[in-house]
Amino acid sequence: MNYKDCDMKNRVQRIIRGNQLAGARLIRLLEEGDPQGIEMLKLLYPNTGKGYIVGITGPPGSGKSTLVNSIIGEFRQSGMKVAVVAIDPSSPISGGALLGDRIRMRCHSVDDGVFIRSMATRGHLGGLSRTARETVLVLDAMGYEVIIIETVGVGQDEVEIAQFAHTSAVVSLPGMGDEIQVMKAGLLEIGDILIVNKADQPGADDIVAELQLMLTMKPTSDSGWQTPVLKTVAVKNQGIPELVDMFQRHRRFLIDTGIFSEHSFKWEFLFFKKRVMELAADKIFDAISDSSAYQVIIEDLKNRKIDPYTAAEQLSVRFKF
Questions:
Q1: Which residues pair with 55 in a beta bridge?
Q2: What is the signed CA dihedral for 42, 46, 50, 51, rounded to 10 degrees?
Q3: Does residue 18 sit in the same domain as residue 129?
Q4: Residue 321, in any domain of the structure
Q5: Which is nearest to 139 in space by CA: 66, 63, 58, 54?
Q6: How far apart are CA 10 and CA 16, in angstroms?
Q7: What is the enclosing helix (H) or strand (E) of 172?
Q8: Rounded to an integer, what distance in angstroms lies between the CA atom of residue 121 and that of residue 95?
Q9: Dihedrals phi, psi of 198, to nearest 5 degrees
Q10: pLDDT digits over 84-106, tens only?
């Protein structure tokens, strides 16, 4: 074993033991696309699959960050280690996150049982950062029992969180008006738990009633879970114990029904499938990029003599799968 391999394994062991500095360095490597980060992640993978992933999404202004801050405190009171991946809009100049993790939830920054990471979307659609999956795997391997993902909050594109998180919580607030109609189109359908935050404001009971009415129109879940609507006032910590209790109930429901492990595998399989397609595409284009047939197809596509569908079909028949 050479020094480089030995050093990598030592760093992996520090991550497994929960060393936050080592974990942060690996996340940075993954964000930068460093191949060494992927090799370390491969070594970490057998230590993943135990963390409970909670997605918090909803429109801007609904108080998601304040809510997450209160949720962290409630989970910590029960002794559970908590990590947060806060997905932020990207800076148009640097590509980095516009909001800093320590600024958003600074009261937990000195707690060794809490790890908070801000990540930029970097133009990735769906509300999640491109490396969110890898970051969650690192945090899972570090022993964080609850991993909260707070998404950007830009509308129905956020449904990607439903594929990723074990529990998806959708946050709304009184006075949203037309935004509720937007939720109908996407966000409402993906929520395992619906939260009306800032419930001390006028109209809170009205929005709760409206959400409950809309849920009656939602197709019955195959799992049998009944989506609850909860009221919170995050700045006053009101309703937070009840909300965290509901998270725990949903987690137990998923484990008891076998959905927890099934959900985790489904997400990993989707990633596996996507990765195979990427590698296969790279190999295909490497193999044919110099061929005359490929050059003819590309030239015809460029001159609009052929459409992309037909071009892909003509290309694919040249390979035996």
A1: 149, 168
A2: -20
A3: no
A4: no
A5: 54
A6: 10
A7: strand 167-172
A8: 8
A9: 55, 40
A10: 998 875 443 444 444 544 455 66
Q: Is residue 103 part of a domain?
A: yes
Give the pLDDT confidence of 184-198 residue by residue, as tens digits.
556 667 889 999 999
Give the pLDDT of residue 2.
Answer: 59
Can you read off the two tokens belonging to residue 3? 């020094």
> How many angstroms separate the first and last alpha carbons of the chain?
39
> What's the predicted TM-score (pTM) here?
0.85
Joined together, the tokens standing for residue 228 give 């609850």
Q: What gap in Å lies between CA 124 and CA 90, rounded to an integer?
A: 10
d(CA 218, CA 233): 26
Within this chain, do residues 60 and 142 fall inside the same structural domain, yes or no? yes
Write out the two tokens for 247: 């998270």
Tally of domains within the chain: 3
Report yes or no on 110 lying in a domain: yes
In whole angstroms, what separates CA 235 from the centre of its chain?
Answer: 24
| Residue 111: per-residue pLDDT | 81
| pLDDT bucket at 78, cuts 50 / 70 / 90 | very high
Average pLDDT score over residue span 58-84: 92
Query: Is 32 domain-assigned?
Result: yes
Q: Which residue shows structure tokens 């809170």? A: 204
- Residues 158, 62 contacting (CB under 8 angstroms): no
Q: Is 109 helix (H, G, I), strand (E, B) or coil?
A: coil
Nearest CA among 90, 287, 71 for reference residue 171: 71
- Compute CA distances 194 → 65, 188, 303, whole Å: 16, 8, 51
Cα distance between residue 114 and residue 107, in whole Å = 10
Predicted pLDDT of residue 123:
45
Are 194 and 229 a contacting pair, CB within 8 Å?
Answer: yes
DSSP 257: H
**Residue 90 structural domain:** 48-257
